[in-house]
Amino acid sequence: MMRVRLKADGRIVEILADGSEQVIDHSDPAAFVRHVRARTGMTQNAFAEQIEVPVETLRNWEQGKRSPRGPARALLKLIDQVPSVAFATLGKKAG
To answer: Which CATH number fits domain 28-89: 1.10.260.40, 1.10.1040.10, 3.40.50.2300, 3.40.50.880?
Structure first.
C-alpha cells in the first residue's frame, strides 16, 4: 500500500519504505508513468504486457521520448487510483 502526504506547500509526496519522501509530479508525463509502474511493483516487461502495449512504447514513455495520450493516459490514471479494478477490467490478475 502506498502512503502519500499532502505538504503545507501543496506538494503531494509518497512516503518510501526507508522513510524518505518522493514528490509525485503528475505534470511530468514520464515521471507519472514511472510512478504508476513503480506502484505496481512490476518490471517494464510485465507492466507493458499487463496493459497490452509494446515494451518499447512503455520505455519511450518512461524516458520522456513520447507521452501517453488519450486512452493510454486514462488507463494509467485508473491504474494509479485503483490498480486492482483496472487489471480486473483488463481480465488479468494484478501483481
So the answer is: 1.10.260.40
